[in-house]
Amino acid sequence: MALPQNDQNQDFLTQYAQVTGTSVMQHLEQLAAPLKGAKVVHVNSTREGGGVAEILQKLIPFKKALGIDASWEVINGSSAFYDCTKGFHNALQGLNVVIPEALLKAYEETNARCAEQLHSILEQADFVFIHDPQPAALLAHFPQRRGKWIWRCHIDASHPFRPVWKYLRPKLAGYDASIFSLPEFAQPLPHPQYIIAPSIDPLSDKNRDLPAAEIDAVFSRFGLDPERPMVLQVSRYDRFKDPVGVIQAFRLAAKLTPLQLVLAGGEASDDPEGLAVLQEVQQAASDHPDIHVLLLPPDAHRTINALQRAADIVIQKSIREGFGLTVAEGMWKGKPVIGGDTGGIRLQVFNHYTGFLVRTPEGAALRIRYLLHRTQLRRQIGERARQFVMDNFLITRHLREYLTLMVGLQGGYQERVVAG
Amino acid sequence: MATDPSTISPFEVRDCALITLSTGIKVQNLKEFRDALEKIPLASIGHHFWGRLLRPQFDEPEYNNDFASWAYHGLHDKPLAERLSMTLPTDFASLEELRQELVDTIEQRLDESELIPWARTGQLFYFLHSQIVVFDTGLRFDEPVDLVAYLPSLSTGSIYYHFIDARSRTEQRCDDFSAWLGGFGDRYQGLRERLCGFDPYFSSLEEIRVHVAGLFQAFFEEQS
To answer: Are residues B144 and B124 in the same domain?
Structure first.
């Protein structure tokens, strides 16, 4: 028999209290009190795959457990729509991308159609969070909206390709507020711009503790050598994640130390370029038996968890990165992380404390060699990394900031809001 | 003069949550920095003195406010960093006066400099500010000694509110605990002096909590 809703909510909160401590949960409950019953809707363009979907999968039930009427809507479009929004994504991250008029038309039509479908839900909501550019054009279809609309940008938009930004900016200017992951990413917009870093969920399949047997099983399952050090990069097959650069780094390091590399990626349903990049990676890895390129299904969370725990070093050699959830995931498992010196990775990786920031394949190779030859140091860095995530990048901190933002917006942009 | 304790209101424990906002203003060199300081919202100045308590950070804070830290790490100007780090907000009656002091310090440095110090592209200074949401925990304490058992578990939000935020709210420019203790007359003067004598500029909120709890505990152990 299922537990009554109140008991389910309490059970949910109790599980997190066991990780973060009860004072953190009490703090969240008190902060959420003025928002009880508020209708909060999150909108993005994929339910599986990618960091945004992962965050929403837990943020929504968490808000519900705190008495907020939270829900999650997903917009879908044609391949032309996804080609357009992938173009937006690349352009916001600085690539010179010319988006044809036909794709922009598909973008606007998709948003218009979805606005019609979601009309009653969004118009009546107290807070609407629109994630990334895909659903950003919905706002214009809600002149009678009741609540506050917030655009949440998960992308490193510090140096956007200007023509695309000029197209998007008028669509974003009408929002009541926007959220960026780092101050560097914020762009001039005529409303308050909040800074909120993303987070990981310590109790998700991707991050919860696993039995040792399940971790060991990944070696035989993927033909890995349990005796040889393993370096792992988990991420979508995306050029900004620089998987080919990781292979270059591996080749340099493997000349001097026994090593194996695992590149584990999945496909996000809103990423039309993934297959092409995967083929490039397979080509680059084809002549080396110790490079393992894995294409995992979107729900392979426990497999990724086991791979991260089995790895000696986690790498995330992105050349642009909004935040890099896989960095926090690796750190949470007590691994030192070698990360690209960019975007949100800089917020997590501190040289010699939680890992190393690098700019080149050579830099990554150097740090792989350095860490593999210092077992004790690797463990110390890993311990610090886990504590750093505990203090700063768990979903409880993320939720606290969302709640603060909503209570703050209710208070009308005042610098100081007294709740209750 | 002795004060009747029955007339003193209980200590009301409040908690708070803060969120950071961008001002949209960024600077790359010392002249731009001075110009921006003259026009940024006052709240931004307060944030850059205390905002580090809210941010993920690992290294020991070599300089105790963001301006000094950027002067060193961004502009590589150590004399300026040292001067800015000894600019204490509690020395000034208002944030406006603090702003003027900062501007004067930078003006002086510009006068001394042959070239305008500048930062690399990845080291720009981003002016931020914060919004604070304050809420009542419902907890009340009638007697100072009752706080001893509770303080070690006080949330970091409460520490921020009562020990840091209080510096801009209380008459003595110190913390809420010593302001409340003052209502008891001279009875807790020793504890008040120790609380006001604590320099919180290099501590995390957790460290401040440990220190404050320790001061209360030690004081009441000496009294017993």
So the answer is: no
Residue B26's pLDDT is: 96
Domain A212-392 coded CATH 3.40.50.12780 = no
**What's the pTM?**
0.88
Domain assignment of residue B101, given as a range: 17-129
3-state secondary structure A334-394: CCCEEEECCCCHHHHCCECCCEEEECCHHHHHHHHHHHHCCHHHHHHHHHHHHHHHHHHCE
Query: Are A417 and B134 inside 8 Å of each other by CB?
Result: yes
Residue B9 lies in a domain: no
Q: Which amino acid is residue B211, in one-letter code?
A: H
ipTM for the complex shown: 0.89
Contact predicate A264/A233, CB 8 Å = yes
Mean pLDDT per 10-residue interval, chain B, length 224 residues: 72 93 96 97 91 66 86 95 91 92 97 93 92 93 95 91 89 91 94 92 86 96 88
- Pairing verdict, β A230-234 and A193-195: unpaired
Residues of chain B positioned with their CB less than 8 A from the CB of A392? 56
pLDDT tens sequence across B147-200: 999 999 888 889 999 999 998 888 888 999 999 999 999 999 999 999 999 888
With an 8 Å Cβ cutoff, are A183 and B22 in contact?
yes
CATH (residue range A5-199+395-410): 3.40.50.2000
Chain A residues whose beta carbon lies within 8 Å of the beta carbon of residue B153: 23
One-letter amino acid of A344: G
Separation of first and last alpha carbons in chain A? 36
